[in-house]
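[audit] Reproducing an earlier prediction to check determinism. Same input, same settings, fresh worker. If the tokens differ from the archived copy the diff job will pick it up downstream; this log only records the rerun itself.
[audit] input (720 residues):
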Amino acid sequence: MSHSIRFIFVLHDHQPVGNFDHVFEQSYQDSYLPFLDVFERYPTLKAGLHTSGSLIEWLDVHHGEYLDRVAALVAAGRIEIIGGAFYEPILSMIPRHDRIGQIQRYTKFLERRLSARVRGMWIPERVWEQNMTSDLVAAGIQYTMLDDFHFKNAGLSEDQLHGYYLTEDDGNLLAVFPDSERLRYLIPFASPQETIDYLGRLNDQHPGAIAVFGDDGEKLGAWPETKKHVYDDGWLTRFFDLLVANQSWIQSVTPAEVLDSVPPLGKVYLPEGSYREMTEWVLPSEQLAEYAAVRRELEHDPRWPRIARFVRGGFWRNFRVKYPEANEMYCRMMMISRRLQTALEGGARGDLIEQARTHLYRGQCNCSYWHGAFGGVYLPHLRNAIYKELITSDNLLNRALRKDEAWVELTADDYNFDGRPEVQLASDKLVALAAPGQGGMLYELDVRSIAHNLLATMSRRPEAYHRKVQAGADGRNDVAGVSDKVVFKQEGLEGRLQYDAYPRKSLIDHFYDPATTLDAVVSGEAIEHGDFLSRPYEARLRRNPNRMQLQLSTQGTVDGTPIRLTKSLTLEAGSSTLEIAYLLENLPSHPLHFAVEFNFAGLPSGADDRYFYGRDRHHIGQLGTRLDLVDSRELGLVDEWLGIDVNLSLSRPTGLWTYPVETVSQSEGGFELVHQSVVVAPHWLVTPDADGRWQVVMHLAIDTRASESRVEQPAVALTH
């Protein structure tokens, strides 16, 4: 050929904060290391490499020699290091000061560790909003890469996507490369020759074209079944052999080399968006199912290629609407970010402040804040890891601001951005967040000593892919195309599909029929006779120097009878016990079946060192056990691995129900059942006194001495 095409090959390697150590190691052995082993053998090939900060920290500790080899390739001009926000946050999810701070901090780290000059950055999950341009430029970034889908949504055609463009915000210019969806589907799933043929056609039709491949490095070995295909069967070697054999017309280049030698094709303003699949996953479940069905109907229509570029799904931020649990994490993150920023603006400096900033940044890692083909927000270990980072950051701020003595405070604000005030009852030991406008529920309970949120729960809700679960179980293929692969990691998942009518939080107030059984409650067949689940409660804040109380009250009905319910939460300075009192007034003469539901998260089932105990600390089953206890005054939950003992004691004898909440969710390995929380529900047949009143006092005592006695060895250095 008389002309050549420039081919940019970029890998994005990432593991989320909180992922299991063995997953990091397996991905290293299956993907990151073997890629480097093969790539080093081809001295004329070049690549771009983005490694997320959470992964590079792990590599620096466990496989520093790998980073040394990467640094040597950087020095040789064969690898261009692509920067980014340190801990892979969705940029539109975090405040501007954190956005710029994460990018600048990671650039400095990469320059120091790999002797790299960082000019470009990877956009996490390619979630783009145009006003981010100015922040990227302010952080020192010259270029980035986005899906060609973004450019098509801006009105460009396929023939206009074979170079790079400039985009602008407030006078700030940024170069943007369109990343080819076609190449992402060819590599590595088609034969190497098909990619070469595609580049050949592109070169014939668009002399001097630039072709960009940028995708997850894990698809080269770490994704299911790809290690054998890419390495054992030699796909990558054959692909690199073909690139070398065709170097007369395929130039292997880095993005910065193109930026320095090729002018932009023009200017473009890109609408908010992400890659196509992400814009689909964010849709409400029913709309997503309808969207997928319509897309399947139309994709064989000869007009579809002309229509497809105008079709798009939803807006990434709506994951915080689709999954309220993601919104809770986001709002907690924002509370701490604002607190840190206020401290910085007030002149706070020092190691504790910088450590708090690092933990905040780690708590902004995106993977737990959404859900698509991977587990995401449904994975408890990822949610727990985010809360651990955020609570640790909050604790460090307390130390930096010299809140070392026992203390307690009670505040109200719109903490979850719903237009209604929430209440925070916080001390040196615990943080409790309650939502008066949502049934007076307790929706977060942080244990500071182990940086653990006992209410990092997940409700069961319909997902579009649940239709595949049901169809797969029935042996049908009418929901998904026959080419779709449905993998079940457990049998009988179709029978475990169940949905919750209310958030799985704590202080959820139920009134049932007197004959209601545990089986009816577990199956969701129990009928609510009251209207207290979502009723707004009036909040009163009572403050004493070392003792604070939140009082919540409302007037509701049970079977048409007006009843007043008041519940209070009291916390003392220096105490790890939350006192919870209930008062029911205006009760009818006949008994009512009243239950208070608690959910406890991060205490998994299925292990002997995670168990319930009763009086005299007698073990009564693992934490996934269904219990139907009578005349009890105490129930404890122990997680020896986590080092926590949660004890619920009651002022009057009670029935106690316990059962697990489990979701059927999708991950890269298939459909699986995931333990989300343990329900503990004390319940009574309430008989009023002569004044039509009934009351009970409960104490939720949290003991973490087992954890505090351990000597922890830090896995990574958290200052950069």
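[audit] rerun output stored. Observation attached for the diff report: Residues 71 and 115 are 7 Å apart (CA to CA).
[audit] end
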